[in-house]
Amino acid sequence: MKKLFLTLGPGLLVFVLLFLASCGGSSTSSGGSTPNSTGSNLNVAFLPKAINNPYFDTAAGGAKDAAKALNGSFKQVGPSTASASDQVTWINNLTTQHVSAIVVSANDPNALAPALKQAMAQGIKVVSYDSDVTPDARQLFINQANSEDIGRIEVQLLGKQLNYTGQIAILSAASTATNQNTWISFMKDELSKPQYKNMQLVKTVYGNDDDQTSFNDTLALMQAYPNLKGIISPTTVGIAAAARAIESVNKGGKVALTGLGTPNQMRKYVEDGTVQQFALWNPADLGYLAYYAAAALVKGKITGQPGQSFDAGKLGRKTIGANGVVLLGPPTVFDKANIGQFNF
Ligand code: RAM
User: Whose Cα sits closest to atom 3 in ligand 1?
Assistant: First the structure.
């Protein structure tokens, strides 16, 4: 540090330290930035909602496989908490580095848009995955599954379990998260159907994809609503924290829980009966597809127009749909019978 101080001088050193602190996250990388077989540099940066989330780590694993297959480079950077303003800092940083593509999962669709538009103006390709930004701030959105199906399926799973009766609550991620908010709007629409007339949504709370906040929110919900019969948590961080909270007050089997989780984080709770069923897609395939889409844009094989198609390696050819959306596929429902077959 002394040497760094002498080299940079006090002012610049403070600036560098402040900058690093403001980013509040870190990065991992793999592959070289050597020119690929087409001669262009394929240097793709993934920016998830937050790092240290097993869901995004699994997606990064898939992206690394794609980078290897395409002779490109991969790195993941991001904030340590799910913060939109920290993501803006990272976008500006990646724009200065002039990476060839930014692949981002948004904590807020609007807050990220100006920085992403600046990146695009400098020739950087922008792909959103998992959680979209405003459509004019990216070329493509890689959607994990049909948003309507994801929202409705969670209500259907809980309804069946509760015999369509009782108070329920939702434990979401950030209140501005594009993906969760879209799914919740379809949950509400599903709940408005006649078969749910005896099921009442009493509250939606936001755990911000933070384990401790989500745990505390779940305890607070059960305290505020002693007759609460079920919780839907459409976030892998939230559902795992909620399961732990339910068990911590011995309410396993009394307060039903479903939503979106990773099999590895939820296995224990499915095996001990706290959770009967939950859903998800394969995050590794999502990261893999997002990398292939970014590569096709960088190589000029597509521009992001609906109807264009591109090679997505082991996932086959994918076609761009309306609004620049590329769909991965249907979600899987996990339960005691099948959870043993999955390891992510
Ligand atoms: C969390 C994040 C992510 C979401 C999954 C289901 O990991 O909120 O955006 O897609 O849950």
Answer: 235
